[in-house]
Every structure is written in structure tokens, then in C-alpha cells.
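Work Package 3 (structural annotation) set out to generate three-dimensional models for the target panel prioritized at the project kickoff. During this period the team completed the workflow that converts sequence records into C-alpha cells, so that structures can be stored uniformly alongside our sequence database. As a representative example, we reproduce one entry of 152 residues exactly as it appears in the project archive.
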Amino acid sequence: MDASRLSAQDWNLRLAVYRAFVATGRAPTYAEIARQVGLPATDTLRTYRRLHAHHALFLKPGTDTIRMANPLSAVPTPYQVYVDGRRLWANCAWDSLGIPAMLHADARIEAVSALSSDAMTYTIGAGRLQAAGGVVHFPLPFGRWYDDLIHT
């Protein structure tokens, strides 16, 4: 396999990660995914690392644990997304909109402003944002997000 490209198996494993993440509300370990898809844990671990290297998953620095499977966060954040009776965490305001888009579902988002600490609630209904107002600010251009993805 060309090391610069991800294989169909890599992408299928990533899909299994997303499905498990959405179903449980937490990031699955590579061992859990290995059991689910019937692959050796060492192969699944290598796939996690490849997906991380290609920005298809984001592992917690220095570990083999998923921190982000964009738009999903494995750690609590100021962006709680309620969809189909589940609470999921988004990494940022942008990702809070990405979760309902990814799931093709309505959602209620409860967020806290990083600047003012004000609580905000907005919804997605029938594919449309419904909010009383507000502004989303991105302090860095997209091309620099991976400079420090956790704090961007």
C-alpha cells in the first residue's frame, strides 16, 4: 500500500469509529473497534495512527486514544449537541453545526461563549439554523488550525 494514501479498509475502519462514537457518545478504543470489525488489535492501532497522520482522526497527543473525530469531541467542551436523544460534544461552534449535518438530523445545541461566558442555545431544524443571533469568530484561518488543533 502507498503510505501516502489511505486504503478502503482504513476508510471503512474510520466509518466504524464514527458509528460507534455516535452510538455510545464516546470515542471507541482501537481494541473495541478491532473486536467489532474482526481485525487484530495491532492492525487497528496502525490504522488509527495512519488516520491521525492524514488528519482523518485526531489522537490525544502522546497516546493512541481518539481526542477528536471531527466534528465529534471525545472530551467535554462548551458545545453540547443534543440529537436523537443523545448528547454529543462538538469541538467548536463550527463543529456543533457539523454534527447535525453529518447525521442528517435536527439538533439542539447548548454552548457557552468563550469571550463572554454567556450561555447560548441554537437549533437545527429541517436543515436550517434557528438562532436568536450571535457571531461565530474563528481566530485563525483554516490553514492554521492544525498548528494547535486543541486550542484553535
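Residues 8-61 form a domain with the Arc Repressor Mutant, subunit A fold (CATH 1.10.10).
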